[in-house]
Write a structure and sequence with these properties.
The chain is an alpha/beta fold and 268 residues long. The protein contains eleven helices and ten strands. The model has no long low-confidence stretch (mean pLDDT 92).
Amino acid sequence: MSATTYFKVETDEHVAWLTLDRPEKRNTMGTPFFKELSEHLEKFDQDTTIRAVVIKAEGKSFTAGTDLTEAGSLLSGKGADQRENTRKAILELQGGLNKIEQCRKPVIAAIHSHCIGGGIDLISACDIRLATKDAVFSIRETRMGIIADLGTLQRLPYIIGHGWFRELALTGRDFTAGEALQMGLLTRICEDRQTLYAEARKIAGLISECPPLTVQGTKEVILHSRDYGINAGLQYVAQKNAAVLPSEDVVEAVTAFMEKRKPMFKGK
């Protein structure tokens, strides 16, 4: 296990557990958070032994969002140069969360208690989201006089649809785990954190049992189709399959089926 300012990392077989580890600050996300997040996701992406990632948190809250004390520094000063610096700073923070999507390994968010503001930006970039029944969510920026600028407004409509999304983005109201499940933001609600992490481990394990290159290719095709449309997505998946088929893992899948045994995939 290794530790940094904002995170600790543990690996369990083919699963990496990335834990927000600033409980005394309710896991608020300061500027270094995004840089460290990016570094961890890049490592997971390159590590061939990792097939899935789970993001969870220590303490009473999953995250209370962006560290407003640090964010206040972006609002200080006047003039065009300061506004340009603010723009660049926002883009750098966005880059940290973009790494979640860019990581070829599926990322699961295991959420408990509060997931506020920047927390929505974070989980919107994840592939799968689970939460405890006491979880509370909010696009809180709207109530703070800020336009959410780290990915929520771009990603969340594709997850829950514009009807729910616009209500939540324009009101900034709290919404419950039950509502989040109803709208499709969550796929599971768990009784407590122990159950939550067990469920995350189960799903990550199911992902890890699949051929790694197929899982990674599937994630890439999903994102490409979202960003460029159906026809472009169809062209891309045809190219993708032409590049990876046949693979050793496909041969292993067929052989294991014929021999009535569990396949052993190697990502080749």
